[in-house]
Amino acid sequence: MLSKMTETRRVAITVADLRLGNEPLRMGEWGVEPGDSVDAGEVLAELICPGLSLELPAPATGIVVELCRAPEQTVHVGDIVGWIETTPTE
Q: Checking CA distances to 65, which of 24, 37, 45, 79 falls within 20 to 30 Å?
């Protein structure tokens, strides 16, 4: 009998187009760290622009494996700010 291999994939955590025009965005505090389990839609961090704080949701269920941006760093739409590793469900 062959054992079934578990395949994982990495999903990018990206800054979505928030339709704020050219307003600069900054990373707020992360609410997770590498190794944490997260569910799709769970708030991972906040994004800050002048006068506004927005939530950055998890794009998938899995394990946070990397955070690429530190709090206070400037980010732009489409930037990858972290990675989640997922395991396919049967």
A: 24
